[in-house]
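WARN no homologs supplied; continuing
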Amino acid sequence: MSFFNRGPSGRFGLPSPTVRPLTLLFALGVLIVSIQMGQIIGRSPDDFFEAIQLPALAVIALLILRRPYIGLALTLGSLPITELLPRLPFATSLFPVLGGLTTASYILSARFGGVTYPKITLTRTHIFAIAFVVWMFISNPTVSWLEGDRTWMFTFIQLLALVFLTGILLREPRAQETVMWLFALSAVISGVVAIQEVLSADEFVRGNGFLGGANTAVRYFVVAMIFLFHLRTVQDNNLLKLLITVAIGVLALSAIYTFSRTGFVILMLAMVLLFLGSQSLGGGKRLRGSQLSLLAVAIIVLTLLVPEEFYVLLDERFLTSVQEGTDTVGIRYNLWQTGLNMWFDHPIAGVGIGQFGANLGSYGIDLLDLDEIVREAGAHNAFVQVLAETGIVGLGLFLGMLWFALRGLWRGTRSPDGRTASLALTWFVTFVALLVGWLTMHTFYDKVAWACIGMATYFETLATKSSEAAIGEQARASLDLTNSQQRES
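OK structure emitted
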């Protein structure tokens, strides 16, 4: 028996002599904490949930150390239920802890566990991502580390680690699909709550589930839908297919009940891209008639289920507000102009990462009300915010990273293996949906988006190796033909 599992397909391992001490150490730790938990519960039942955090974390740590990719699955899979996650006394949130455990597991299994991971190949996506984060520091070193309520360099170092680890640990289809399953299940739970929020309210509310905001919620609901479309294609069990179909309907309805303008756009865009992209997948994989019917039925059912009030709100919140700049759209227009004003004064380096909100009072005083200046912390547009905070150089590096990531994911859809091509299309559509969502949100540090960037490095490397192999095969064939002709002559 080995402590470090060989991964999703059982290829990695660790000799058993190293196993037992580690296993016993973790078992002992869980036992000690469990005893303490019992004592705490006996004194105060109200402390129960706080008491079980440490033993639960110990079990999670054990799982991650055995299979590092589970750390990524838990990190990404828990995003749709962020508000349910425990607040740890020794960390700002659960995510840095999961990230640290995943990184430690990867290093330990590679260094001491006899695990042979694929060699890290720096792609152009990697280079632009690293350059973007480095520029963020050298252009404004003080604010990137010390100013504000968040250490932004630490955040982006974590995101860089996510890019590298995702490209290494999620190479197996099963590992990628594990991430998709966990994310989708969490999103369905959050989506059901979002629907209940809207239906049970006596006045207009926007559903957000366990995500704290409707704009973030709708993006994750759409991402989960995209994941489920792929997962449905690889299932043979008809009952499971039916359950996935129901889950897709729940998520689509949840997305609509967020009453998000951008969310409605990316929902429609995702459906169109899934249809068009699947028709040209590598490996001969196509969207079958039953899946086309699923898309059609989903649209019809949603049209019937959505109340009439939604279409009235759609006209007021989407068409009229965008054209006339009313509602929160007008505020966004003014925030974008404020961001451009910041850039005009700091064209090369910007005002510094995370400093958009701090500079609103100086640059938006003629465009925004005082309460808007106090309330708003971002530009509600990722590209305007990157331009304002990191300057034209930062925006150029950021766009270069996104371009090569899109290119890498699209190259993956050309794979001769149908399952690999379908996975690449899933990540590609997810990434495009999030990028479109960034037009009205400034969360360019979203973990799902950076995981897509990490997957792009894998598919780019895979496509490059396939091209090199094809060129080598063609060269050998040409050489054989030349030798044959020479012998005949």
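The radius of gyration is 25 Å.
OK
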